[in-house]
TrEMBL record:
GO terms for molecular function: diguanylate cyclase activity. InterPro entries: Diguanylate_Cyclase, GGDEF_dom, Nucleotide_cyclase, Rev_trsase/Diguanyl_cyclase. Signal peptide: none annotated. It comes from the Bacteria. The chain crosses the membrane at residues 28-47, 54-71, 83-101, 113-142, 154-174. This is GGDEF domain-containing protein. One of its GO terms (biological process) is negative regulation of bacterial-type flagellum-dependent cell motility. Residues 189-237 form the GGDEF domain. Keywords: Membrane, Transmembrane, Transmembrane helix. It holds the Pfam family GGDEF. One of its GO terms (cellular component) is plasma membrane. Gene3D superfamilies: 3.30.70.270.
């Protein structure tokens, strides 16, 4: 049974906004990963790789690509969780396998998958996770270049530099966007004069607490108080002093 909120349904608490944004982002990433898997299968089939072992590999790759949409989007979390670590490790194993298998080729469409995965982890989990992924992949690339057919793998070094450039530029842009979003969020929930939470934030928290009380069948109390003769204090002293007094109640 859904609680009939006394305020607009468009208003929600901050935590719910973050989770909704994370869930939508995971759905987009999950759908994108499925599209990538289908693209790989399509290309490999057109290249004539139709052996029974290859068909099993295509099936496993497609099933794995659906896990992000099924599990990561089902249990959204702003930080990397157990399913995030699972995809992190498996993606490294898959791309490491591609690197060894394709090390004898001068060019390979698999190289672009490195950039795509770095972008996915950068957008979803931030620069630290993306840098960790890029460092491990770079170690694999360097090992392949130094130990196997170095003369044919200059493109892998170019790929390494491209990954670092992507993390640097896209990561900085995301940091600026995040800072701006947090600033806008602060301005929308705080009074500009006193710096305390405004009525919009009160609405969000009230709806959140009402729904939680309804969900757990608990009572909820709301305390409202007024400062006696505060107008006289405001008239007797300058406005800045009254503003300072209000900030002490934050």
């Amino acid at each position: 049974m859904k609680l009939n909120n006394p305020f607009s349904d468009a208003v929600s608490c901050l935590d719910r906004d973050v989770l909704d944004h994370t869930r939508q982002l995971d759905r987009i990433i999950g759908s994108f990963r499925i599209m990538i898997a289908l693209f790989i299968v399509f290309v490999e089939l057109n290249l004539g790789h139709t052996s029974p072992r290859a068909m099993v590999g295509y099936t496993l790759l497609f099933l794995y690509s659906t896990l992000w949409l099924l599990m990561q989007a089902r249990y959204p979390s702003p930080k990397i969780g157990k399913w995030g670590y699972f995809h992190f490790v498996v993606d490294l194993l898959v791309m490491g396998t591609f690197t060894f298998l394709k090390s004898t080729l001068t060019t390979s469409y698999h190289d672009g998958l490195y950039i795509i995965l770095v972008l996915i982890y950068l957008v979803r989990f931030g620069k630290q996770v993306a840098i960790s992924f890029a460092v491990i992949v770079s170690a694999i690339i360097i090992y392949v270049c130094l130990c196997r057919h170095f003369e044919h793998n200059i493109s892998l070094f170019i790929l390494l530099g491209t990954m670092l450039a992507v993390i640097y530029f896209v990561g900085n842009i995301m940091d600026l966007e995040k800072s701006l979003r947090e600033k806008l969020r602060y301005l929308s929930t705080h009074d500009q004069l006193t710096g305390v939470y405004n009525f919009r934030y009160f609405q969000e928290q009230l709806i959140h607490e009402l729904e939680r009380a309804h969900r757990y069948q608990r009572s909820l109390s709301l305390v409202i108080f007024d400062i006696d003769d505060f107008k006289k204090y405001n008239d007797s002293f300058v406005m800045m002093q009254a503003t300072w007094c209000c900030r002490q109640w934050e």
